[in-house]
Amino acid sequence: MNRRHIFRFGLVALLISSALLAHPEEAGPPKVEQLAWMGGSWEGTAGKASLEEHWTDAKGGTLFGVSRTIIGGKTVAFEFLRIESRAAGIFYVVQPGGRPPTDFKLTKLEAQSAVFENLAHDFPQRILYKKNADGTLHARVEGERNGQLSSQDFHFRPAKKE
Fold first, then answer.
1. pTM for this model (two decimals)
2. Over the stretch 117-142, which tens digit does the pLDDT of each residue have?
3. Which residues of the chain form beta strands (DSSP E)?
4. Which of 114, 131, 137, 157 minimizes the number of CB atoms within 10 Å of its CB?
5. Are both 21 and 63 inside the same structural domain?
6. How many angstroms from the chain centroid is the CA of residue 31?
7. Are 46 and 121 in the same domain?
8. Total domains present in the chain
9. Distance (Å, rounded) from C-alpha 17 to C-alpha 46?
10. Are residue 125 and residue 67 in the same domain, yes or no?
11. Cα–Cα distance measured from residue 127 to residue 106, given in angstroms and rounded to the nearest whole number
């Protein structure tokens, strides 16, 4: 190989490595740590209901969460939540009311949005999260219910420190 070929090879290698550093999400499969934007305490309302979600930091291939719905000063619903890395991908695992877990696989991950799906589940079949530019968090569940497309949106803001 002459100097010219070595220079070209080195230049191509430099360009490829620069592209990978500029876009690390393209360097391999997604990692739970790329969902760190979900971490923290979030609050919102839906009619008379007060909603809360609390997520740990994304570390060790997991995020753990809990949600609670309060109406009239009384907890009317809760869920245990986790996002975990497995050999088959990243999964959002939900346990409403402490029931057995239901898995939703990550199917799309962008900078600050994620889509999890379980098309075999009754409702929802999709769970979506997006962190907005204003620092709020939007969650949406959607799918078919009784043959009709249905969805429910949840809007959260960072919880106030007490």
1. 0.82
2. 999 999 999 999 999 999 999 999 99
3. 40-46, 49-55, 62-71, 74-86, 89-96, 102-110, 113-117, 126-131, 137-145, 148-158
4. 157
5. no
6. 11
7. yes
8. 2
9. 47
10. yes
11. 9
